[in-house]
């Protein structure tokens, strides 16, 4: 038991570093950029609050666990804003390999059984093939959209994003796992982009 606790507390101490990884997305009030730990907590709360938007059979407890773990790799890799010039690089083989190495290192800090279970959830989220992962991935795209709407455009203005780019990079991903949410959000985003000078 003490050896397991040593490993678990080492993992938790390392996870604390996620609070120092800043993202492009600002808080809703636009006062500062959020950190990745705040994003992970907020998107897990999205899952809890918006659970009724999931497809039948989606296990919200598993979705919340995925969302709490999904961005831990950013401790090693940092965040690549989806609308930045390097946003397309996020899907590159090099980025994927770096994230795999980070997952190996971070989850490897845990006792073997817990490391295996957490890594399996992370891999499932990344593969985006199960109903749980599709819903989790859809939710992961929502908080930045809502923050940009609340803050007067946020990163959309910063990166000169068009509605077509938003739909291509974000919309289809939300719609895949949460079509009702995209229908609602799409109306809000179309209105914002239409009103923009």
UniProtKB/TrEMBL annotation:
It comes from the Bacteria. It comes from Neogemmobacter tilapiae. GO terms for molecular function: 5'-deoxynucleotidase activity; metal ion binding. It is an enzyme of class 3 (hydrolase). Its EC number is 3.1.3.89. One of its GO terms (cellular component) is cytoplasm. Homodimer. Keywords: Hydrolase, Metal-binding. Its cofactor is Co(2+); Mn(2+). This is 5'-deoxynucleotidase. It catalyses: a 2'-deoxyribonucleoside 5'-phosphate + H2O = a 2'-deoxyribonucleoside + phosphate. Residues 32-154 form the HD/PDEase domain.
């Amino acid at each position: 038991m003490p050896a397991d606790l040593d490993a678990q507390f080492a993992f938790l101490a390392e996870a604390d570093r996620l609070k120092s990884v800043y993202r492009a997305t600002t808080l809703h009030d636009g006062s500062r950029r959020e950190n990745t730990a705040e994003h992970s907590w907020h998107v897990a709360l999205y899952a809890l609050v918006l659970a009724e938007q999931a497809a039948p059979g989606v296990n919200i407890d598993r979705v919340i666990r995925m969302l709490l773990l999904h961005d831990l790799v950013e401790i090693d890799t940092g965040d690549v804003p989806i609308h930045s010039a390097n946003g397309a690089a996020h899907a590159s083989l090099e980025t994927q390999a770096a994230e795999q190495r980070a997952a190996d290192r971070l989850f490897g800090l845990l006792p073997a059984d817990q490391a295996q279970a957490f890594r399996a959830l992370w891999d499932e989220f990344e593969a985006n093939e199960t109903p749980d992962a599709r819903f989790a991935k859809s939710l992961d795209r929502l908080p930045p959209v809502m923050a940009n709407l609340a803050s007067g455009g946020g990163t959309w203005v910063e990166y000169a994003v068009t509605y077509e780019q938003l739909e291509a990079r974000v919309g289809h991903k939300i719609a895949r796992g949460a079509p009702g949410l995209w229908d609602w959000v799409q109306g809000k985003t179309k209105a914002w982009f239409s009103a923009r000078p």
